[in-house]
Batch of 3 targets.
Target 1
Amino acid sequence: ATLPAAAQTDSTGVTPPAATQGDVSPPASTEGDISSTTSTAPAAPAIADAGDAALDAHWSARRNWLSLRGGYAKSGTEDAANGSVGGGIGYSRMLSKWKIYKWTLFKHFSLGGYVHVDQLGRFGKSAEIEVPATLELVRHFRWGSPYVHPYLGVGGGAYYRKLYRSGDDIGVMRTGKYLVLGVNSPIDDTNVLGVDVRLSKVDATNVRVNPVFGIGDDNATHWSVKLNYAITY
């Protein structure tokens, strides 16, 4: 006689579980149930840090700057003409820091040379022109943001002065010194835009009393405000 299915056993004597139609349910799968253990959120701070470092590279040691400037220039002597225009070109290099005993020197400093041509003012067709060829040492700073880099420095060199169409024209070479300050902001990893301000002290006496510009001043203040564009590499 055939035993009922519930009483059938296999060769080991173990009764297999009864199978009923539809009794086996596949594992439930819900969308999004798998934990994303391998996925990570974008490393936003790391990306931002890398971008800041690329902008700050303009001020890293041994970086070279080629600058082009243009703007306003004026003589501060008494009875001087109204200010006029000026421009210049220059090269500077960010210095490597020097470690001397416990002191670190020239960190964030640059050394550069510049030639400017400034028309300090005009009376009609008469003009006062100055061509300074100078060296300058500048300390650069970073104020919170990679886009704000002020600077402060000193410089000096040869100042060629010319009075033109004055009725008694002269051209003389004198020495001068100046204070320079300004701020630069990177455009990208190669280009920088900024504003440069110079306050110069120059012997601006004329050889003789000039019919237009007078006797001049042996401690004249000449100043300029110029837009500065630089390529760095």
Target 2
Amino acid sequence: MLRMAVLQNGRGRRQAPAQRRFPRTSGAGRKWVSRAGEGCEAAGMGMLALQQGREAGGALRPGWFWYTTDRRRRRGHRGRASQVKRSRSPKISRSRTAVGFGVLTFAGLAEITQRELEPYHPSEVAVFRLRNYDLIVGKVSEASAGRLAGLRTVEDVFYMMGVPVAVAVRRDLGKLDRIVSRAEVLNGVRLKNAFCGPRRRKSPTFNCFVKQDRDRDVRRKQIAERVAARVGSCLPRWRRADPSEIELWGFYVKGSVHVGLRVSDEGMKYRGKAPQQRRGALRPTIAAALALLADPKPGSLVVDPMCGTGTILEEVFHREKAARYAGGDAAQEAVELAGERLAAYGIPIRRWEAKELPFGDAQIDCIVCNLPFGRRYSTGSQNPALYRALLSNWRRKLKAGGRMVLLTADSAALEGGLLGLGLKWRSECKVKVLGVWATIYVVEKGPARRGRAGTGRGRG
């Protein structure tokens, strides 16, 4: 059927529609014609540009109208004009659409990650504890969603679909069909393309995984199979494979299932580099948490006395490029690895003994360090003496008002050394490092800042 929309002329009266047979054109679309019925383009713009102009508040020339050239709509109605309807300008919505997001961090880092999320102004934020991980879900604006790739304390970012559903028994799995839809999956793919760049393939591959807080009657495999079947029915050209290009994750916590599409890749958690193969190397996301607490200022001197592969110094450098940095280690292998990693940033790495730092007294503004702990690098009997020697030297090198950000699983040895030197500290959080619960301490030289002073119990 002929569809026509006539704009009013300058005098506010309706224009008469042009009586004309449809042109014999192939394909579907809309064609702009003048009052005389001659095909043309208004003001040198095509239909798409005209529509965009109208949506932006622009106006068309009076007396111009459009009709469809879709053969399916004009079959059997050639040469006959339908009732003319007035064209109305669409209302422009000025509200920003909220996008559901989820971020996965190592267990214990949720509080620090929430601080990093503050500039994104998230809403409806909730934190869930999983095995070895913390899940933070919430909503951000569309503009902020694309910038979540800049987070450095998170392992992965997800586009969260719909509202979580309660799953208590197997028959409740059918509820997942409400939130896993074609539209939601494709919205997640668009956000993934914004993160990692578009990849056009005729038959994308996908897979499903599930994490949970504890075992329940409904198994993780059953949830994954249900989600995979739903995706296969919505997108029949997609093929399930492992590894896959697209990953859907279910998070089964507190009896409800949250479903998200992973929009980040391995480059986010490893900073686009190959994972460090040195034994005991710290993950960049945990190092980023230490850097956030260090909070270096422009021109300040930041030192890592036991730099290892240089991960901590790299993360602190990305937080404040105008500061000064130095690092060292007693192992030659570590010095070489850190030197290669930090050469592009101009950070000097030297071989030294951490108990005798080559700096004058009161010269260092901040010390950030992953202290040796565990059976691989020390023993419980060695740590008390080692920590006391380190802290004694570092306190002298630190300026008044300076701070130390330290990570260790041997809290008794560290707190004993701090008490013996009369230093004030606060324990920020406990984080799982290589399967062991370790504590992040912030030590102040001088008056302690407001916070949890003393030992401060964390998660265990």
Target 3
Amino acid sequence: MNFKLLSLVAIILFTTGSRPISSAQGDGVMVVAIDPAHGGMDIGWCEEGLSEKEIVLDIALMIRELNTRPDLKIVLLRETDEFLSLKERARRIAEIAPDRVLSLHTDDPEHSKYEGLQIFLNKNDSGGKRISDQLNSAFGTISPVHVRQGEEYNLFALNHYPAPSILLEFCSKAEPSLLQDPNHRQRIAQAVLESIQ
């Protein structure tokens, strides 16, 4: 199906503020696992020949490539066009035992009421609120930002991944979609990377 609008949903899972940043490695290095959604037979949705699974993997690879911090290690749950079930994703996250987990998605923009970035938080996630403030600042030059906290969201990554979670939904109504532009995808990757503190 060909869409005129394109949105990016990024689900970002982080530890609470009370958990030590170096807890995963014990050497002062923060470990962040990035979960590019879909893959393999599960393409997500597609616009003008560019699929969701390709967009989110490209952004994830960019985040890892852009990272030059010696105190930050980026680990991808998938690096190729590989299908992973939700259960397998959760298992891999538990095995990596990261300090934070970032899961990237795109979504059908026809169902989005918001232009720009939405940030979804579980209501008791105080550490997530701190991260959302950083994301608000980082994404401020890219798009409007809407923070939504306090509601119950029936999302697997928010409720079943082994870490507190933040959900990011980026929606572009430009034609052609901004996410068709690799330079724009790189700006998104850079903003997400800058939010990881």
